[in-house]
Design brief:
mainly alpha, 17 helices, 85% helix
């Protein structure tokens, strides 16, 4: 049952992320062609600054999920309701502070960022984009956490996918009909505000959430320790744009946003394959299944490392050609930045391979013990980015993210190996070296192949197909040479799920 839920969550997460990735490439291109780089840079910068407000709810998600694993496994509805009540009370307070914070941010932001736009223009746009952030915090987060802990994330994925499609349809119609950027973003805000409302309605009916219960505040007491982990994730994802906005200019933010489209797409694709894994790990830890935890971690590492190597190898080879095609006709700033592209992809690779270790630590509820690593990651990223951005611009902020990500990956892997899984630290190092060797082999092979350099989507898709096939072949050889045991375990798990499903159907027929 646990494996079946994980597969369903993974499939629906992949569908959601494919929809999100496609939509995320369509809208910025429409904004670039209709309004220009400065408008695109401004909307990207505002979105990232609004992420600061999300820090208010940081920590509650990880703490609540960790607290819910045991009562969900034991089907203790009273304890589940108590935890949800405490979380909901906390989120209502956050929503009030968040509403005030959005207004304050909207007032200060136009004074911090150098643009051609008036204060009232930027202020009103900030408020419109902030509507979705507020609605999600007020209505949706508590119930999303419950679905994640109960391995029912697929429900959220279905609703979110519909909202993404609705958003792109509304925004495209408004842009093509000549509407202002304010109207376009208002249409997007309305489309996404539907998500938390529908989610809350579903969860209340499905789980029969009771309002008149005593909140279990003790269960979520680790939220302040978990806060530092969420803060670190926020910094890794958002520091670059904020540093560029304050210490550089809004045009470079637009350049960053195009490359970040690719990075976010890769991140979403990887996390789609690992969504729900933390809940499965949490269930194993709650049931004290240590051997199963080790075995499943090795399988997840196989998937994560292989997939990360595959898509990042392809990205490094194809990203510059994509940017040339995507920004064709936009000449107000230079979008071709190869060194920046390679560094930012390196940081994203480190983030991807860290996910299994992060999930195990969070599932075990070790927030307090590991918060020092999260704090140091924040310090490294901000300090290095600010020091280097003035001289090196985009490359400077990318180096800050890369160094911080490398530090946290090493620390989380070492902590998990020493305190939870109890295995040798060198295992992670060996897996990283295998990925580096695979990438070098792929890179050398692709250097010997003359891929088409004509800037159009057809040639780029053909190049992508060739690169993907060669990369997949090299990685599969690597799996057979270095991961044979884990690969066999993966095949066995897939067979067990398929055959158990068939046997269940046959039993129902009888």
């Amino acid at each position: 049952m646990r494996g079946k839920k994980t597969i369903i969550n993974t499939i629906m997460s992949i569908i959601e992320d494919l929809v999100a990735i496609i939509c995320s490439f369509i809208l910025p291109r429409l904004i670039l062609s209709r309004f220009g780089s400065e408008y695109n840079g401004l909307t990207t910068s505002i979105t990232q600054f609004l992420s600061c407000a999300i820090l208010l709810r940081s920590g509650i998600g990880g703490a609540t999920k960790a607290a819910l694993y045991k009562p969900l496994a034991e089907k203790d509805s009273n304890e589940v309701n108590g935890i949800i009540k405490a979380t909901d009370n906390f989120m209502k307070k956050v929503a009030i502070i968040l509403a005030f914070g959005i207004i304050v941010f909207a007032s200060i932001y136009p004074l911090l960022v150098k643009t051609q736009f008036s204060w009232i223009f930027t202020f009103s746009l900030f408020i419109i984009i902030g509507i979705n952030t507020f609605a999600e915090s007020l209505f949706g987060i508590t119930y999303l956490i419950l679905l994640q802990a109960d391995q029912r994330l697929y429900i959220s994925s279905i609703i979110k996918s519909i909202c993404y499609i609705l958003n792109i349809v509304i925004a495209s119609i408004l842009i093509l009909s000549g509407a202002s950027i304010h109207m376009v973003k208002l249409g997007s805000a309305i489309a996404f505000a539907i998500y938390p409302v529908v989610l809350s309605i579903y969860v209340k009916r499905k789980y029969k959430i009771k309002k008149n219960v005593e909140p279990d505040n003790k269960a979520i007491s680790q939220r302040w320790h978990a806060f530092w982990h969420q803060a670190a994730i926020f910094v890794n994802n958002n520091t670059d744009v904020m540093v560029l906005s304050i210490f550089s200019n809004i045009m470079l933010v637009s350049v960053y946003s195009i490359y970040n489209l690719v990075v976010n797409g890769l991140r979403r694709f990887i996390t789609a394959f690992t969504n729900g894994i933390d809940a499965a790990f949490g269930n194993m830890i709650a049931n004290n299944e240590k051997e199963k935890l080790q075995e499943n971690l090795s399988v997840i590492e196989l998937i994560t490392y292989s997939l990360s190597t595959l898509i990042h190898s392809c990205a490094i080879i194809l990203i510059l050609q994509f940017v040339v095609i995507y920004t064709k006709g936009v000449t107000d700033v230079n979008y071709i930045q190869p060194a920046f592209a390679y560094i930012i992809l390196g940081g994203q690779f480190l983030y991807s391979i860290r996910l299994p270790y992060q999930f195990v630590v969070q599932a075990a509820g070790h927030f307090k013990e590991t918060k020092k690593y999260a704090i140091m990651e924040v310090i490294l990223n901000i300090t290095i980015s600010i020091i280097l951005v003035i001289k090196y611009g985009l490359i400077g902020v990318a180096i800050g993210t890369l160094v911080a990500s490398l530090y946290k990956t090493i620390m989380f892997s070492n902590y998990m190996s020493d305190n939870i899984i109890e295995r040798k630290r060198i295992i992670t190092f060996k897996k990283c070296m295998i990925s580096i060797i695979e990438f070098l082999v792929i890179f050398l092979i692709m250097k010997c192949i003359n891929l088409s350099e004509k800037p159009n989507y057809f040639n780029w898709i053909i190049n992508g197909f060739i690169t993907s096939i060669i990369s997949a072949f090299v990685i599969f050889i690597g799996i057979l040479l270095f991961y044979r045991k884990d690969f066999n375990n993966l095949i066995i798990k897939i067979k067990n799920i398929i055959f158990s499903k068939k046997m269940k159907k046959e039993g129902e027929r009888k």
